[in-house]
Predict the 3D structure of the following.
Amino acid sequence: KCAHLRLACQTDPKPCYTSKLWWCGIILLGLGEVGNFTAYGFAPAALVAPLGCVSVIGSAFISGLFLKETMRAADILGGTLAVAGTYLLVTFTPNVPQEITAKKVQNYLVSWPFVIYAIIEIITFCILLYFYKRKAVKHIVVLLMLVALLASLTVIAVKAVAGMITHSVKGKMQLAYPVFYIMCILMAATCAFQVK
């Protein structure tokens, strides 16, 4: 954002990709996401996913510090609740290491709890999408719920892919199973639709 603001202030604005600051930010963002993906291979998803909100809080702090953006009471309250929730999840999540193999992922995908979860999620997503597209309900809660539903599938797919890659690196090849590629496609698709 700093790079965009600097470029916008110029009399002859250039594209953002010509800025070294912008490229530095993109590279750091990419490295952070690679680290986040790697964390899913070694830690439970219940630990890794909530820690993502720490980056949002860090961004809010940095934007106030460097970009002189104002912090509202709602921002402070939201940040405090996010930190408290993350603390509770990290503190009370059972630390049971679980190796994710292709066979386990296949078994989880056809188990009744996941099938019921997937059906409820798809129905809820379709209802929200109907209200958003057809009824023009553009409320922020509808958008956030649509993204959150997709994000839950992204977390499942990332955990499966990262776990299978980790298991393969340890010597037990998991990349030959079709479920690995199915989860890669699910991961990429849900990420793309969240951005859209």
